[in-house]
């Protein structure tokens, strides 16, 4: 399951994706209010997303946040990896943080590993194939 932190990050990024391209930065207080994210959590989340290159921040009275790339170039997978780390449910199938499972006799014969590899691949396919732009269009279609 996604952590609450990831859900907050997704809501904040989806809100920013709906801001006009080239528009002024969106203040953190407005993001917190509109995305329904507690400000204390949001501050840390936005800092992580900024450090990962998904957001740009501007200080000062007219400051705030904007997406670092257009919404169609940022996937839900990008956001979740920044907040959660690898998408894999077990370390032996992770592409970015591989670790051998200590209790596994043989990776080649491990049924759990094979199943989790399929789960990882399908999860990555869906999350990496869904951009913020896709998600906001789907969101608007449902409303």
Account of the 3D structure:
By secondary structure, the protein is mainly alpha-helical. The protein has 2 domains: 4-67, Arc Repressor Mutant, subunit A, CATH 1.10.10.10; 74-129, no CATH class. The protein is 51% helix and 6% strand. The chain contains 6 helices and 2 strands. The chain has a two-stranded antiparallel sheet with strand order 1-2. Strand 1 (55-58) and strand 2 (64-67) form a beta hairpin. It is elongated and about 60 Å long. The chain starts with a helix and ends with a helix.
Overall mean pLDDT stands at 91
CATH superfamily of the largest domain: Winged helix-like DNA-binding domain superfamily/Winged helix DNA-binding domain
In DSSP terms, counting alpha (H) and pi (I) runs of 4 or more, how many helices? 6
CATH class of the largest domain: Mainly Alpha
User: Which architecture name of the largest domain does CATH use?
Assistant: Orthogonal Bundle
Q: What is the β-strand count?
A: 2
The parts where pLDDT drops under 50 for at least 5 residues are: none
Largest sheet: 2 strands, antiparallel
CATH topological fold name of the largest domain:
Arc Repressor Mutant, subunit A
What is the number of domains?
A: 2
Content-based structural category: mainly alpha
Write down the overall geometry: elongated
Lateral strand order in the biggest sheet: 1-2
Element string (H = helix, E = strand): HHHEEHHH
Query: What distance lies between the first and last C-alpha atoms, to the nearest angstrom?
Result: 25 Å
What percent strand?
5-15%
Helix content: 40-55%
Keywords: DNA-binding
Protein name: Rrf2 family protein
GO molecular function: DNA binding; DNA-binding transcription factor activity
């Amino acid at each position: 399951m996604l952590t609450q932190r990831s859900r907050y990050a997704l809501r904040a990024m989806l809100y920013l994706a709906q801001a006009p391209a080239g528009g002024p930065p969106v203040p953190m207080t407005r993001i917190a209010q509109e995305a329904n994210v507690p400000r204390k959590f949001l501050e840390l989340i936005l800092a992580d997303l900024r450090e990962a290159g998904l957001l740009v921040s501007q200080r000062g009275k007219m400051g705030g946040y904007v997406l670092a790339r257009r919404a169609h170039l940022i996937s839900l997978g990008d956001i979740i990896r920044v907040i959660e780390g690898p998408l894999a449910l077990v370390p032996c199938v992770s592409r970015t943080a591989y670790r051998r499972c200590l209790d596994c006799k043989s990776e080649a014969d491990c049924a759990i590993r094979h199943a989790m590899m399929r789960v990882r691949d399908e999860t990555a396919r869906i999350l990496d194939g869904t951009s913020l732009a896709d998600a906001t269009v789907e969101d608007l279609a449902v409303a």
